[in-house]
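EI: anyone free to look at a 313-residue chain?
SC: sure, send it
EI:
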Amino acid sequence: MPFYYDFEHPIESLEEDVEKLNARNAQGEDVREKLEKLRARLDEKKRDVYSNLTAWQKVQMARHPMRPTVLQILPHVIDDFLELHGDRGFRDDPAVMTGMGRLGGRTLLMAIQVRGKTTQENIRRNFGMPHPEGYRKSLRIFQTAERLACPILTLVDTPGAYPGLAAEERGQAEAIARNLLEMSRLNVPIVTVILSEGGSGGALGLAVADRVYMLENAVYSVISPEGCAAILWKDAARAAEAASALKLTADELLKLGVIDGIVPEPMGGAHRDVITCGKEIRRTLETAFEDLSREPALELGKRRRMRFRTFGG
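SC: here you go
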């Protein structure tokens, strides 16, 4: 069943009316004129609602229960994906998927954060929150990419790295810090796309890239709005206020120079047309890797370090 937030209720009622007229039309009743007018009203209402979302509403869109996971989007972005398992040290972390695939005529090595769609799958994937071995598995792939002179693609979708005791015992902070250090000096092109949520160091551990893009309704922040509100005001209910202050939306981050571009989503969110969303991501990646392929390899790491050092300046 479709899911609607409170701010989408005007759209919900219009879509229900469209469905009723479609059913009458299918039964042979001539309601084409009414249907066309209603669809026009629906399109107008969608533009009005979705082009004026607040920061908190975009957080809600990024967390939409029907929002596609990377496993739904990946087949429309990458050809011939082959998964590669394990960090060669402890275990294979299901919250991070690594492998290789093709984009046009270019072979890429990839690290991808994965959430589940069902409850059981989310439990298996730890709700997209990586353990240290997920970051170490990614680093193994990054180092392989440099040896083979292959570009790197990372897809980010996590509320944050897993903060549990077992992860801390196995060196969660060190694993993320090591990725930040090593990614900053790799001399191969790196492109990152933030699909839904990019939370804190858990996201940054895969996002030290030459080009960083966000889907239109994705969010990227040092902390969740609820966590920020709880720290600043001792009241997580003020999350909407915190979301606005955090500047975590794609348009705000583009203005600040933290990201390089916004990938448009279908009207109403990526869940309304996964194929079109995947094609937009693919088009963006093809352009980005083509541009980066013209850059001198030895300059990539240097420019990447300078890029991140100047944030906030």
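EI: The radius of gyration is 21 Å.
SC: 👍
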